[in-house]
């Protein structure tokens, strides 16, 4: 699905194996149609009576592009697709789709689904105990290497549930971050979904943290929404990341279910990014849509800020080329990464990779046709975005 | 003006009669050039000396597409267009343009022009007593059915002018909403223009409402900008809508003259939408531009949220295809509606329908050419957006 | 690089000399590669180890389009480009690039670089004493007329450093604005970068200004970030502008290094613009990206608001056509201006003009091909945007 007249070197660069620097484990069990529909929609509710979540860009793309990998015709009806999926069984479906994505390494956020950005809706809470592939399994199914990303809010919850006193909580957060970061390639925060990105960028005082921790420990099962504790957690993570040379990923933009969308605009991280610049910890902005232009701007002005549009590509599907084009308006090419944002079902991984290649291919094709770029630059930059930049930032 | 190579079924679906689920009555009288210019601009002021409101996307589109319906050449000069309009007379012009839109049913916001979203500018206040076609007349001129939408802020003003005491005001708002909703197909709020969409989503307490109503009754001729009373009115409307199974339309984005534009971003309705989800009242986001991506996102995650770009299409005119493309990035196809947003002159209705068909046709054509969608899906979805979804939501 | 099938009159209109209504002086001295890289990036920091600021849209465009003017092949490597630049010497390079832009008049913001929108980052402070071409020199090098724009925050700093008392400060601001405006064609404010555009639109009271001035005079070397003094300065500038019939330019959107990006959204000037409408002082929104749609909206509803996307074109480079297309969605054609936003190196001037012509040419070409516009309108409007509107607004 690449433009037909791309030079061979550019085509090869686009088709080369990708580093998927941010994904989640997918469901290991067979899925009913109702379950599958919930997993291809971002909201956690069934479609209204008489409608289906297949009638959305991602749903049409599943029928178009994933169906052939399950030996079905393109545009196959939803019922046929779901039933063929069951017939083949989840392991075989996952293998075909993950391997089909052409990924050489998965970096996997291993937090349980109940800690997903959408973890505050009742519908999502019911998914809390479901079974997702581990990082190792994601790699094995996809014929790829696999590494772990540590979700810092998951660590916090484990600590909050165990700490008898605020001072234990503080020690616990630091110790657990250090311990778990030791076997990870990066840290990740979902503060955008839990609070918003308009938090006070300064490190909170110890006194404020103790006071907030005391409140927190009274009911540690609640999702963490306290701004002071979220900032404390984030700054503690920054300390660990600096020490170990790890990047910190920020979920930004759509795909969570917390505050109003404008509060997840990554542009609101400007002052925080400036404050972090001396530390040299890479900040990686995930998803970003519909604020990907703002994210690209931050990546352009801050040497330690990186950007990708992740989950926006499988979700915008047939319209994803424009999203990539808008990202390319301002982002430096050494700051762009690929991720599928894969979530719930392996279809999102396959489609993430497919639309990434298609959209970047279209962007490069039009620049070559207009004489704006040379083929050598196009091939070089496709390699950088597809894997080179991730290898450098994550030290793979 | 559809792509030449569209399959016949898709072409037929695009050309099928539309349900225009949100429009206003148009002027019934002949218009001078100065009056016509004011009505094709969104701001309420004459163009600066030496310039003309015809030199804007909508103005060029009027000369291009409406001129032939008045027996003129495309691209006819403004003076010729306005003089031919007078020659034919407003009734004939309205008939040609409204019938030319190919609409099978108009849902008409029947508030007087002085209650338009732009009702706070002095220029607009001067239009307060002008004569607009009623819903019935809109239907008759356009050869279509017609139903009414109730502007809740108009009801409030009528009640405020008549209520001696705050308690009468409270009773009156509830009673009048109930009475007028009985013969309407939907309710509509312009809270975005009067206050902004960043209101506190919670229902205000009775005490707060009484206090605010007392202030209000001291000067009921003023436009309603009190946040507490606006919320009270909105929640009262939600109660009535729930009882009668009616949707509630929200004016969002450009096209009003109240608060700064970012405060009309429909993304700011996220918490309110979540709060309303159990009630099941459909929320319909109108216009949305330039925040249509945010609106499409809300429509994707909330089962009761719907979206259309209304007035954005005639106003962006030759550039409207990209607006529709951006809307299609994330919005479920069963959540998209067509409206012309028709306002002031029938040209906006005709152009709204024309650019809707043209833009959706281009979007479908490119998906078919890329093999992304099947023709059967394209035709089915065109029917859904053009009329099917509206018939379902408004129970037409 | 214009579409091949444009009618001759439209082509001529696009290639006609431009009025560049907003640019800065460029460096007069030879630049090392490190210096050159800093000047083609917006952030003021070197690219991370192993990367280069040439790997960004603007950097690729320099190699593609500026190289031939220095007798090099398109797509020449960065090292070759920088070394050829040194070989020719800065005066010759500046002459070729500025003359190559095809500009008939430069309006030049003559504030020293340390007063640039980015003046708060340490990296930029180090450029404080560098040598930039004056307005006269810009004109001479570019074979064009040249006029001055007065940066009001520079005047304030000069006054603050000299005023013994708050009352002298107040008098000084008014007197200096009047004196310097006497030989300028416009005023310019960078309040977006110093504070944000979400300032209180009302004129501050004299008492508040005196109090703030007393604080200011204690440390006048600091950049001005006090909201009250910035508003006082702005309203004082408005007074002078009204008296002398001068427009006031606002830096908006990307390109500064002050508050978070969303606070530079020109849409936030809505209430201020409404307040200024009776005064009739033209407000000109510069750059605007990624909020150019919001800026176009303001230009549509306020008779005294103008817009251009300046620096966004050289920075988005190969992707600039979409930015211009989005600007054309709503902006009246008599409200659009051209500027290169030229900054630091003459390449930005040359590329600003090149991409402006290319992007507008593409937009006009597609409207002509679709039959949306007539060739006569296209040519007329190209003349208006390229120079006519600027001549009218600045009374050139």
From TrEMBL, chains A, B, C:
GO terms for molecular function: hydrolase activity. InterPro entries: Amidohydro-rel, Metal_Hydrolase. It comes from the Bacteria. This is Putative TIM-barrel fold metal-dependent hydrolase. Residues 170-396 form the Amidohydrolase-related domain. Keywords: Hydrolase.
């Amino acid at each position: 699905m690449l433009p037909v007249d791309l030079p061979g070197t550019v085509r090869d660069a686009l088709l080369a194996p990708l580093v998927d620097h941010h994904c989640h484990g997918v469901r290991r069990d067979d899925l009913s149609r109702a379950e599958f529909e919930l997993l291809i929609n971002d909201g956690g509710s069934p479609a209204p009576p008489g409608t289906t979540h297949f009638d959305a860009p991602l749903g049409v793309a599943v029928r178009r592009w994933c169906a052939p990998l399950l030996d079905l015709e393109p545009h196959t009806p939803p019922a046929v697709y779901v039933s063929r999926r069951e017939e083949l069984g989840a392991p075989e479906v996952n293998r075909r789709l993950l391997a089909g994505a052409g990924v050489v390494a998965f970096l996997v956020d291993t937090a349980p689904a109940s800690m997903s950005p959408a973890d505050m809706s009742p519908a999502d809470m019911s998914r809390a105990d479901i079974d997702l592939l581990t990082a190792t399994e994601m790699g094995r199914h996809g014929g790829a290497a696999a590494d772990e990303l540590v979700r810092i809010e998951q660590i916090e919850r484990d600590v909050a549930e165990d700490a008898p006193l605020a001072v234990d909580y503080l020690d616990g957060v630091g110790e657990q971050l250090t311990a778990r970061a030791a076997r990870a390639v990066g840290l990740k925060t979902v503060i955008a979904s839990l609070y918003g990105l308009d938090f006070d960028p300064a490190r909170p005082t110890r006194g404020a943290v103790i006071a907030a921790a005391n409140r927190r420990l009274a009911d540690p099962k609640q999702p963490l929404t306290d701004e002071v504790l979220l900032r404390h957690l984030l700054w503690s993570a920054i300390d660990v990341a600096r020490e170990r040379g790890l990047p910190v990923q920020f979920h930004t933009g759509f795909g969570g279910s917390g505050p109003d969308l404008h509060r997840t605009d990554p542009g609101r991280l400007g002052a925080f990014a400036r404050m972090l610049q001396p530390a040299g910890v890479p900040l990686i902005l995930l998803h970003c849509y519909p604020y990907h232009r703002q994210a690209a701007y931050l990546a352009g002005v801050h040497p330690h800020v990186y950007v990708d549009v992740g989950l926006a590509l499988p979700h915008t599907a047939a319209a994803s080329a424009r999203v990539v084009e808008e990202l390319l308006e301002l982002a430096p090419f050494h700051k762009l990464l690929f991720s599928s944002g894969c979530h719930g079902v392996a279809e999102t991984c396959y489609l993430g990779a497919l639309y990434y290649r298609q959209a970047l291919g279209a962007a490069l094709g039009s620049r070559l046709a207009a004489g704006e770029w040379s083929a050598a630059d196009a091939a070089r930059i496709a390699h950088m975005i597809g894997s080179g930049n991730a290898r450098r930032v994550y030290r793979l």
